Amino acid sequence: MLTLNHFLALGAILFAIGLYGLLSRRNLVAILMSVEILLNAILVNVVAIARFNDQAQGDVFALFIIAIAAAEVAVGLALFLNVFRLNGVATVDPLRRMKE
Amino acid sequence: MLTFVVLSVLMIVGAVGVITLKQPVHAALSLVATLLTLAVTYVTLQAHFLAAIQVIVYAGAIMVLFLFVIMLLNIQGDQPQPHFRWMQIVAYLTALLAAGAIAATAFLSPRELPNAELMSEALAGGGAAAIGEALFNDFVLAFQLVGVLLLTGIIGAVSLVQRKATQTAKDERELSGV
């Protein structure tokens, strides 16, 4: 029998995978893709919880998350293009200068 | 139940592919697989409209952006320089800890939860009509604000990528013969 817990567990696994990618990858585009996995893990939870609690608001919330993710990807990729232009590579290494 | 298991396995394999494959294009295609199986999962949850949006916006628009940037950057995968060897171990531990914490919270919850078969019969929501009603009645302000945010994001992205605006302006003036 399928319960809410199954969806929450799936979300947890996806979130953990995304978190690992976020921390271990050094390519900026790969990091942004890991962020997308994180967002989608949250989306699974939001949609499943909304569905199991009889609320349409959850779907609206998920819609907003998708819209914000689109804006975030656009701005993030534009920033990465600039990083690539300035440094010749699109990894996190040149960004170490930011702490100086 | 079987559908859920198959979809979950595909989704997790896709997600693992995103974080392990060295070629960014392969990782991006793996991400597409994850997003598409997620859309099918939404269909099994009766969220048809959201499934369509997931395919159109995520697997469509966002992935096209990713692929464009990967092509522009011509990235050859992660360089294998072990700058932070310990970071990988920390990443493993953090991910495991997070998974354990969330799963523990989900499964040790004392609340009784209804099962999916009963709920899906009781629910008629999830279609475009129900979402539209909620969106344009209770969340109009948030809807407008998201619109403004998207516009800001687009303008920000364009202005960030634009190169040497003064130079192009000068070129155009010369071209128009002033």
Protein described:
The complex is a heterodimer of chains A (100) and B (178). Chain A is mainly alpha-helical. Helix content of chain A is 77%, strand content 0%. Chain A has a single domain, classed as Helix Hairpins (Orthogonal Bundle), CATH 1.10.287.3510. Chain A has three helices and no strands. Among the domains of chain B are: 1-75, NADH-ubiquinone/plastoquinone oxidoreductase chain 6, subunit NuoJ (Four Helix Bundle (Hemerythrin (Met), subunit A), Up-down Bundle), CATH 1.20.120.1200; 139-178. In chain B, helix 1 (2-20) runs antiparallel to helix 2 and helix 2 runs antiparallel to helix 3. Chain B is extended and about 75 Å long. The mean pLDDT of chain B is 80. Classes of the chains: A mainly alpha (100), B mainly alpha (178). Chains A and B meet through helix 1, helix 2 and helix 3 of A and helix 1, helix 2, helix 3, helix 4 and helix 5 of B.
**How far is it from the N-terminal to the C-terminal residue of chain A, by CA?**
55 Å
Query: What is the name of the CATH topology of the domain at 1-75 in chain B?
Result: Four Helix Bundle (Hemerythrin (Met), subunit A)
* Structural class computed from helices and strand pairing of chain A: mainly alpha
Helices and strands of chain B, in order, run as: HHHHHHHH
**DSSP summary: helix tally of chain B:** 8
Beta content of chain B comes to under 5%
Uncertain runs of chain A are none
| Unreliable spans of chain B | none
